[in-house]
Design brief:
Its cofactor is FAD. The chain is α/β, with parallel strands linked by helices. The chain has three domains: about 5-110 and about 240-305, FAD/NAD(P)-binding domain (3-Layer(bba) Sandwich), CATH 3.50.50; about 110-235, 3-Layer(bba) Sandwich (FAD/NAD(P)-binding domain); about 325-399, FAD/NAD-linked reductase, C-terminal dimerisation domain (Enolase-like, domain 1). The chain has eleven helices and 26 strands. The strands form seven sheets. It has a five-stranded parallel β-sheet with strand order 3-2-1-7-19. Helix 1 (about 10-20) runs parallel beside helix 9 (about 290-305). The longest helix is centred in the last third of the chain and has 15 residues, at about 290-305. The protein binds nicotinamide-adenine-dinucleotide. Nicotinamide-adenine-dinucleotide binds near residues 45, 235 and 319.
């Protein structure tokens, strides 16, 4: 079986490795439009942006590994279409026939439109190596940075920039930071951490436009305030890469729609990672995380080879900001109750999410023990009562 994997990020690398580990001996070809072989993305907004980590540690596998494994990399090559009838991927450099095709295309950062100054030089996003190559030289001590968006990208970039000595203002349009992904209690801890490190956080105020003629020189807010800026970073979310799938007539529903095994509406085409949405108990689910990219890609690899096993996500996330580590286990979607526990240090503690009386997720800031125990409880299907979590003197007793 000739397998082509389109998109050469984390999910692609994990899928290719798993296919070989499971004994697939046929051809495997990865096609990606970036120039670099697959690399880790999480450090891009953390240690790599800070300059504490080099490219050598970012890469997922050395050049020799791909050769040894007989996996062919077509880099800096952009797919332009999928001819499903002929089972061929079309690119700007040629054609690649497949027996099975996997779409691991990821997601692309949303940008502010040109009418809002989103196109101006000095406006950056943080998603791939090229973005960092453009933004990093501008992160110079003493400069003024406005970060637009208070999700993990915006917050992590703000933390790095403060560490590098910039003056940082973060603007979140929604009533509070982390509205999409975390409870108010977690947002409170993260806001306090940032303010303690000198980040100015403005919430509940939108952006009128980024100002400037030759380059960005400030941001005008919807309440009329103007923030002068030497550079702007936008972390306003991502959109799944579905254009190729849509053009090929595949079902798309908040991502390339797959069945529980990761197969798209064409049985010869699979999808995994940020670009894929899979069935969940209440509708479809699409997860934007490296954990999902790895796990779903490995599940799809097994299913391509006939395993026939449903993909069951075990979500985990983390975020490093300043000297603090936020660890997240489970998925908090639909939570209706939250319990908090104080942590040991100044900026620390844990937030436990419940839905219909069941523990579904834990956010732990500088509290590895709460994370570890919460993760084990959730994965083991155990659910101590909210009162027990709030009152336990030793969390281990909950196990
Ligand atoms: N540590 C981690 O797990 C981690 C780190 C970085 C990125 N990521 C992932 O990368 C993806 C991109 O991250 P992100 O932070 O850009 O996305 P996000 O969707 O999590 O957050 C975007 C934020 O921008 C705000 N926003 C949107 N439009 C705005 C506007 N016009 N003005 C001001 N605020 C606006 C939103 O309200 C939201 O809070 C996400 O999937 C994220 O979870 C994860």
């Amino acid at each position: 079986m000739n397998i082509v994997i389109l998109g050469a990020g984390q999910a692609a690398a994990s899928m290719a490795a798993k296919l070989r580990a499971l004994g697939h001996q046929g051809p495997i070809t990865l096609i990606g439009d970036e120039a670099e072989p697959p690399y880790q993305r999480p450090p891009l907004s953390k240690a790599y942006l800070l300059g504490e980590m080099g490219l050598d540690r970012l890469t997922l596998r050395g050049a020799e590994w791909w050769t040894e494994q007989g996996i062919i990399l077509h880099l800096a090559e952009r797919a332009t279409g999928i001819d499903r009838a002929r089972r061929v991927v079309l690119t700007d450099k040629g054609e690649h026939p497949y027996d099975a095709l996997a779409l691991t295309l990821g997601a692309s950062p949303r940008r502010l439109p040109q009418t809002m100054g989103g196109h101006l030089p000095g406006v950056h996003v943080v998603r791939n190596l090229a973005d960092i190559a453009a933004a990093k030289p501008a992160l110079v001590a003493g400069r003024r940075l406005v970060v637009i968006g208070g999700g993990y990208i915006g917050l992590e970039a703000a933390a790095v920039a403060r560490k590098l000595g910039l003056h940082v203002t973060l603007v979140e349009a929604a009533p509070r930071i982390l509205g999409r992904v975390a409870a108010a209690q977690t947002a409170d801890m993260i806001r306090a951490l940032h303010r303690a490190h000198g980040v100015d956080i403005i919430e509940g105020v939108g952006i009128e436009r980024i100002t400037g003629t030759e380059a960005a020189d400030g941001v005008t807010l919807s309440d009329g305030r103007h923030l002068p800026a030497d550079l702007v970073i936008c972390g306003i979310g991502v959109a799944p890469e579905t254009a190729l799938a849509e053009a090929a007539g595949l079902a798309v529903d908040n991502g390339i729609a797959t069945d529980a095994q990761g197969r798209s509406s064409d049985p010869a085409i699979w999808a995994a990672g940020d670009c894929a949405s899979f069935p969940a108990s209440d509708g479809r689910m699409r997860l934007e995380s490296v954990g999902n990219a790895i796990d779903m890609a490995e599940a799809v690899a097994a299913n391509m080879l006939g395993a026939g096993a449903d993909y069951l996500p075990k979500p985990w996330f983390w975020s490093d900001q300043f000297d603090a580590k936020l660890q997240i286990a489970g998925l908090n979607a639909g939570y209706d109750q939250v319990v908090t526990r104080p942590g040991a240090g100044t900026h620390g503690g844990s937030v436990w999410y419940y839905r219909d009386g069941r523990l579904i997720a834990v956010d732990a800031l500088n509290d590895a023990r709460a994370y570890m125990i919460g993760k084990r409880l959730i994965e083991g299907g155990k659910s101590p009562s909210p009162e027990a979590v709030a009152e336990a003197t030793d969390l281990k007793a909950l196990m």
